[in-house]
Each structure stands twice: as C-alpha cells, then as structure tokens.
Design brief:
The complex is a heterodimer of chains A (about 150) and B (about 750).
Chain A: E1 2-6, E2 9-13, H1 21-28, E3 47-50, E4 53-56, E5 70-72, H2 84-92, H3 101-114, H4 120-126, H5 136-147
Parallel strand pairs in A: 1-5
Antiparallel strand pairs in A: 1-2, 3-4, 3-5
Helix pairs in contact in A: 2-5, 3-5
Chain B: H1 12-28, H2 35-40, E1 46-47, E2 56-59, E3 62-64, E4 70-73, H3 83-95, E5 102-106, H4 109-114, H5 134-156, E6 163-166, E7 169-172, E8 177-180, H6 181-189, E9 237-243, E10 250-255, H7 257-260, E11 265-271, E12 275-280, H8 283-291, E13 294-298, H9 307-317, E14 324-329, H10 332-338, E15 341-349, E16 361-366, E17 371-375, H11 380-391, E18 398-402, H12 417-427, E19 434-437, H13 440-445, E20 453-461, E21 467-476, H14 479-483, E22 516-522, H15 537-554, H16 559-564, H17 571-584, E23 599-607, E24 610-620, E25 626-636, H18 643-662, E26 668-669, E27 672-673, E28 691-696, H19 709-726
Helix pairs in contact in B: 3-5, 5-6, 11-12, 15-19, 18-19
Classes of the chains: A alpha+beta (about 150), B alpha+beta (about 750).
C-alpha cells in the first residue's frame, strides 16, 4: 500500500511496492490519460509532473513516493483544458492519433514552467518524447505559441 | 444508390440502439457501458448506440438530433491521419449543415453486417479512407439534404424545388419561411431515399477543401480520449501474453506454479499453440506473473534463421533466371549491353516494425451465445471476421467496437492476431471480460514487418549521357505471399511494383525509359511481412530515385535536368518535382548553417494515387554528423479535402520515413527479432526533426491518398543530399550502419 498525492488529493493505493507509478495511476486510480508506451522510460507517453518537474511514471515504483510529493497527471493539468499548452494545441491541431499527446503536453508544460521563454533549440533538447505520427513541428510551434510571441524567432 | 439505406423505417436507429443494449445485457447479466457511452461524456466519437432514441436517422450516414446536432457516421477508422474530419467535411458539404454542430460516430461492423454493408468497406489502409469512399459518402450527405428539404416542403405543402438548405436551415425561398434540420429530420427519415443524387462541383465547396480544424482534438488534450487499452468494463480482468519469439514455433511445456501463487493471478492459459497468457486482476500483476512463468518452446524449423542468412538468399536471387515481370519496354538487356557505359549498384532495405505508440490490445467477452470485442483496428470488418472465427460463433452473434487508434501504420489493418488471442483467452473464461494488452517487447517481437528486399540496378548510358536502358531486379519478400497467398498467381505479386508500374493510376513510374525491365524474384524468409505505412513504394522509390541520382552524376548531369529529360510524358510527376526544386532554390547554393555547407537532394514518386516530391537540405560534418535542416515537399492528391491535414500528414511522413531511413532495422538472430524496445529500436525525435515546408498542389480530376506516399520520398531525398555533401553513396538502410566520417 502506498499513499500518493495525485492532482491535489491524497489517496491510498493497494499495490505491491514495486508497482510502477504509471500502473497505479491507470489501474488503481483509473487515471488512464497517462499512457503506457515502452515501460523503460524511453518514449515519454507516461510523463507526469512530480513537484512540477516532468517525470516518467513507468520507471518509478510507488514505494518511491509519499504524500508530500505532488503528482499531477494530464487530468489534473488544468480543470478545463485551459492551460496555455492545451489551448495552443487546440489552435494548431497538434495531435494526430493523440496517444503520445498527454505525455507530450505534460513535458511541454513542465518545460514552460521551468523556462517560460524557451528557444527552439531548448525545446528540441528538452522534449524527448516519441511521437510516431510525427507531430514534432506542430509541438514546437505549440510551445512557442503558448510561451508568447517573444520567442517566436 | 446502393450505399444508402433503404427507405422507410424510422425506428431502425432505435432498434439498433436496443439491440446493442440487449447484447450488453445478455453477455454479463447487466448492462455493459459501451465505450461509446463512456466516450460520449468526454467528447470522443461514440459507438452508434450512444445517441438518444429521439435522434432521427435520416439515412445511414446522417443522424439529426432535436437540438440540431448533426451526427455523421464514419465507417473508416481514425488513427491520426485525419480521415474522420475529412469524411465528415465531405458529407457536411453536400448536407448543407452547420459545421459547428457536427459530431461523428463509428457504426459497428456487426451493424454493417446486419444492414447489408450499408456503410461499405470499413478497411482503412492504403491511404484509401477518403479517396475510395468520397463518392458514396458525398451522395449520402446529398441524399440526406434532399430528404430534409423534401420533408420541410411537405410540411409547408410547397414544391421542394422552392426550398433551399444552408447551415442546417431549410428556407422556402418565395415566402421566407424557415425550419431547422432537427425539426424535420424524423419526417425526412420516413421518406424514400432519392436515387438521382447530383453532387456539387468541387469548385463550389465551402467546407470540404477548407483547412478546418479536426473534430477529434479536444479529448486528446486532457486525457479523456478512451483508447482501446484504456477500456474498463465491470468485472473485467487483465491479461499479458508471451508468444513464441521464433515465428512458427510452439509452446512445448509450461511451468506456472510460481506465477499462479502470485497476487491477483486468476489463470495461466495456453493461447493457441504458440502462446501463454496470465490473467490477473490488474495488468501489471498479470505482466509480473508472466515474467515468472517458465515456458519451454519448441522453436521449430526456423530456430537458426538469421538476417545474414536472409541476405545471402536475397543476394543470390539478384541473379536468378526466373523473375516476375512488372514493367517492360524495349529490350533492356540488349540496350545495356550495347551502351558505351554501364553503371551498376546493389541496394537493400531491412525488416522494420511499425512501433505504434499504442501496443496491440483487445478486450473480449465470450459466452456460448455471443462474443463481443473492443479493439483499435484499421478494419473493423476484418476484426469481426477474426472474432467470429475464433469464437466458434456465427458472425451475427459477434460484435466489434472500434476506438480511435493509438497509431496504425498498417499493423492493425490486415491480420488481427491480437484479436484472435483475446477471444481465445475470453473463451476459456466464459462470461468474464478480459483485456489483453501486449508489452512493448511483445509488440516488437510479434510484429508484421516491413518486407526485406534487395535490388540490383543496372543501366546503360548512351554517348550523350542519356539513359539507354535500365534493368531493376528486385529480390525479396512479398507481403501478399505472407498474408494472402491465395492471391499470388504464377509467383507474381503485383504489389511489389508499387511506384514502378507502366500505367495503373495508382503508383506509376514517372520516367519514360526506352529500354526497361523491372522484375521481381520472390524470396520469403520466415519473418511475417506486413503492410507498413508506404508499403513497397518505400524501398522502390529509394532504389529508383537514388540510382537515377547516381546515373546523373555518372553522366555529369544535374540530377534535376537528368530526370526532366525522362519526364516529358509524365507532367504530374514533373509538376511536383518542379515545385519542390523551385521552392527549395535548386540550382542556387544553399546558405551554410552553423558554418557547415548545406547540400540538396531530390526525389519524386507516384503512389496511393498521389504525386509527391521532396527536396532535402542536409549538412554532414567532417566527423560524419548528419543534420537534416529543411525539407520541401509537394503533393498533388487531385482533390484536397483538408489542406492543413494534408500538411500534417506530409510532416508526419518525414518523421516516419526518416525514422526508417536513419534507424529502422529489425534484425534476426536465432530465428527471432533482436530489437525489443525503443532503446534498441531508435526512432526520430524532436532534436533531429527538420523543418518541413509543404506545398499542396491539387490539380483536380482525381482522388489520391495522402497518408502514405510522402514516406517514400523522405529517404531518397536525404540520401541524395548526403551524396552531394560527402560523395558517399549509402545503399543499405538504415543509415546508422554507415559512417559518414570523412577524416
């Protein structure tokens, strides 16, 4: 059993200690927006925020957490999909199949939280999530749009 | 018009909803919340039963709710390619409805079967989603509009010819009276379906042809989009599976004692003759227990097979006397023999995995009376057929519920091996829904792989450096032989000549070569092949476009001019090539980037009915570091239904195509695939993504696909630019196996 602080609520999950956070979120808490893509922290489909920092939930056991660490999933990023990243994604039609996009959005939101005006080079460096449909250029444009016009160059 | 439902039954839709509700109740003794219903709360497209019974089905394609919400039925599958929005645009264009009130839903394969395939083919592959259904979906929209207008006219006792529909409102022009689609929809649904349904001239389109935003984005932004692997059903258990990693092998014995004692484990099951599954309360527990099952395999006759062995077989086929002819003109052998200069090169293309972001998965529930499956599929009808076969039940007692796919790329198009497994598991646990989700490792090992091929290009150059003769000998794997062997005639698979045909209107060579022979010596390794986004156009375009570049250099000619000299009879091919050359600035030097000189490469092809071309700009450092800076791409799809989604497909095609060119390789050792996850099977990421400038050039008069053709021009444009930068010809893919270092 583990106590997790997820999207502002402290919850107990019934799971073995070595259960990855990803599967506790999906199967114990029903938060299926966080996706399984690889299980080895390669693809980023499972990206969540832990104390505001992007983290890959497939590679972290629930035993590594207690109720003081604030976990935010895609469902908790904003109450009404109003985060600037979500708004930019909507305006630019960023998603294709969409499966990687919760992780992509969480990675992008964490980047903006740490670096409000990232350069294009920083975006390319920091967001390492895999998208097989190939949304990368719209992801870059979306992050730039969410950050505001000053970074567009 | 046979694609439109027969007239007269206003309650058909209601019956549909009732039937599905009963089906859910039947299997479990209580109502299964169908995924469509769950999705309806989240903005995702619903399965057909979700709509309220008061909604009126005007015809098979159009349902109008009393609040004027327009529900457009989409028979093809949405996997990111935008077909859902494009098809809805085509229906809405003819329907004259308010685009802001359009939603969509998937009819199920079971409903399609029950209604005499009123929605036509559900297969979503070969870039066919729009081009092969555009005619009947537009007629569906137009027929619905005519019925709505007629219903309004009847209510007013005026001639229908005096009424007009626009933005979901019917207006009686002489009097100015109006009504809404919602008010007349039920009456419209009782009218006979018109048989003479004229369509608009595309020049008059207002919704189709426009870069409207996708209809399926909102739920993809907040985690509410339910994919197949997200499905939750009451009482559902979860399964993980491991099949014999050597294709053709079987399970010899299973020691499951340790696994069965692990928490949450319900059953350890044999699945078919080649797989073992663990069923548990959660998937993580099932997967953990599966790791503890000790399986002994009978690896069968291919246990020693290797990629090196395949290469030997293919190489020897380059000289095989017997080969199926795909395209022939003049006498290539004689022309090459007589030419003052002969040029020859051998190319190869490896096995590759689709690596969809969402791994294979399906949920199934089976009783002796019924079988239901929920799965992401590119072909609901094929999934339904497999479910029926595996269940041992008649098709009418089976149903498949579709989801938006987390990637398809062909993996989910033809065979439905994971559906068969899910049903075989469910069949061993009657009445219990079981969700089978593959691990990424299983997904990598049990793929349906891009076919492996080699090609020997042999050309004769004339005295003026003209191409006098060309022999293109393809050797290797046939997808059709692997998947539909009954369709192979006399050892010939016509699909292997994609992009090389003389005239098919589908995938034709863009050059007139006076003496030409293109033939294929089929050799099929035991690795199962699959349709892989772009299919055979991928390697064929590399072989032809890179070798033409070689010939141009051998002849001392500019690669663009060398091509143009062969393209006089191929104006559409030439137009896209010219478009990229002009936009990229071919013939003028590219500006250096970060002190590195930048070089260009070209390619063009015709596939899936569309004409495409690309110009790549790359730099290669002395140490061999490749950077792809910019791609200019052009597409002529005939009619362009949504230009911004075509641009999205073109951009995405470079990610998929360049992933393949740079990294994509599944090698075989001891009969099994060696790459097991994204650490050993690298793909392109954002740091390597070039800028892509897309030129959409719809010349009208035909309908081409856009999801796949551009994949094929990605690799050759880059490889030709690499040659320009380094003087190195890379003829074996992927590029990661070749050093570009010059010092």
């Amino acid at each position: 059993m583990a106590k997790l602080n997820v999207n502002g609520q402290v919850v107990e999950v019934q799971a073995e200690d070595d259960t990855p956070l990803l599967w506790a979120l999906r199967e114990q808490l029903g938060l299926t927006g966080t996706k399984y893509g690889c299980g080895i922290a390669q693809c980023g489909a499972c990206t969540v925020h832990v104390d505001g920092v992007a983290a890959r939930a497939c590679a972290m056991p629930v035993s590594a957490f207690d109720e003081t660490q604030r976990i935010v999933t895609i469902e908790g990023l904003s109450p009404d999909a109003s985060h600037p990243i979500q708004q930019a994604w909507l305006a630019l039609d960023v998603p294709q199949c969409g499966f990687c996009q919760p992780g992509m959005i969480m990675a992008a939101a964490a980047l903006l939280a740490a670096t409000p005006r990232p350069t294009e080079a920083q975006i390319r460096e920091e967001v390492t999530n895999i998208c097989r449909c190939g949304t990368f250029n719209r992801v870059i444009a979306g992050i730039q749009r969410a950050a505001g016009p000053a970074t567009a160059g | 018009m046979n694609a439109i439902s027969r007239p007269g039954n206003p309650s058909r839709r209601h019956l549909l909803a009732s039937a599905s509700a009963a089906l859910g109740a039947f299997t479990l003794g209580f109502r299964i919340p169908l995924p469509g219903e769950a999705a309806a709360q989240t903005g995702a497209p619903a399965s057909a039963p979700a709509a309220a019974p008061t909604s009126a089905e005007v015809n098979a394609w159009v349902v109008v709710k009393p609040d004027d919400t327009i529900v457009i039925r989409i028979a093809r599958s949405e996997m990111g390619q935008g077909t859902l929005t494009g098809l809805a645009q085509l229906v809405a264009e003819e329907l004259e409805c308010d685009w802001a009130k359009v939603t969509t839903e998937y009819p199920t394969p079971g409903q399609n079967l029950a209604r005499g395939r009123v929605w036509g083919n559900m297969s979503t592959g070969g870039s066919r989603g729009i081009r092969e259904s555009q005619d009947y979906v537009r007629k569906g929209g137009a027929a619905a509009r005519m019925m709505l207008v007629q219903a309004a006219a009847n209510a007013w006792s005026v001639p229908a010819g005096e009424c007009r529909a626009a933005a979901s409102i019917v207006t009686h022009m002489p009097s100015g009276r109006t009504t809404t689609f919602g008010r007349v929809a039920e009456a419209a649904g009782r009218l006979p379906v018109p048989t003479d349904v004229p369509l608009k001239n595309p020049a008059d389109w207002k919704v189709a042809g426009q870069p409207v935003l996708r209809l399926d984005t909102a739920a993809k932004l907040n985690g509410s989009q339910v994919y197949g692997m997200d499905l939750q059903l009451p009482g559902m258990l979860n399964a993980a599976i491991h099949a014999c990693p050597v294709f053709g092998g079987k399970v010899r014995s299973v020691d499951s004692a340790a696994a069965e004692a692990m928490p949450g484990v319900k059953r350890v099951l044999r699945v078919g003759d080649n797989a073992v599954a663990v069923v548990a309360d959660t998937w993580w527990r099932a997967k953990t227990a599966l790791d503890a099952v000790n399986i002994t395999w009978d690896e069968g006759e291919h246990a020693a097979a290797s990629s090196a062995g395949f290469a030997e077989v293919l190489r020897s086929a380059l000289d095989a006397p017997q080969a199926a002819v795909g395209n022939r003109a003049g006498d290539a052998a004689a022309a090459i023999a007589a030419a003052p200069r002969k040029v020859e090169a051998v190319y190869s293309y490896p096995h590759q995995n689709h690596a969809c972001m969402e791994v294979m998965n399906a949920t199934a529930v089976w009783t002796p009376e019924r079988c239901e499956v929920w799965t992401p599929t590119q072909n609901g009808e094929a999934a339904h057929a497999v479910a029926a076969e595996a269940s041992g039940l008649p098709p009418a007692r089976c149903e498949v519920h579709k989801f938006h796919l987390g990637g398809g790329f062909g993996r989910r198009a033809a065979v439905h091996d994971w559906v068969r497994q899910a049903v075989e598991i469910a069949k061993q646990m009657p009445g219990t829904p079981v969700k089978l989700v593959w691990t990424r490792e299983e997904d990598m090992l049990q793929g349906r792989f891009h076919p492996i091929t080699m090609c020997r290009m042999t050309a004769g150059l004339g005295a003026q450096g003209n191409l006098a003769g060309l022999h293109m000998r393809l050797a290797g794997q046939s997808i059709i032989a692997g998947m539909f062997p009954q369709n192979i005639r006399d050892g010939r698979d016509p699909l292997v000549f994609q992009g090389l045909n003389a005239s098919s209107n589908e995938a034709d060579i863009g050059y007139t070569i006076p003496n030409l022979l293109i033939d294929h010596a089929m050799r099929n390794p035991h690795v199962p092949p699959g349709f892989w986004r772009g299919v055979n156009l991928n390697q064929n375009t590399i072989y032809l476009e890179c070798f033409l570049d070689e010939l141009a250099h051998a002849a001392g000619k500019d690669p663009l001019e060398f091509r143009r000299a062969l393209m006089a009879n191929h104006p559409k091919h030439l137009a896209v090539l010219n478009a990229v050359a002009e936009r990229a600035g071919w013939g003028t030097p590219a500006a250096p980037v970060d002190g590195q000189p930048v070089f260009r490469g070209l390619s063009q092809t015709h596939g899936f009915g569309s004409y495409v071309a690309a110009c790549a700009e790359v730099s290669v450092s002395e140490a061999g570091v490749l950077k792809i800076h910019r791609i200019v791409a052009a597409t002529d799809p005939g009619h362009a239904v949504n230009p911004q989604q075509i641009a999205a497909q073109v951009e995405g095609s470079f990610v998929y195509g360049l992933s393949a060119a740079l990294y994509g390789e599944c090698t075989v050792k001891d009969g099994r695939i060696e790459q097991t996850n994204f650490d050993s099977y690298q793909v392109l990421r954002m740091d390597e993504m070039p800028k892509v400038e897309t030129i959409v050039l719809p010349t009208g008069g035909f309908w081409g696909g856009v999801g796949e053709p551009t994949i094929a021009v990605a690799a050759p444009a880059v490889l030709n630019a690499i040659f320009a930068a380094t003087g190195k010809r890379v003829r074996d893919l992927p590029l990661k196996n070749t050093s570009l270092r010059r010092t």
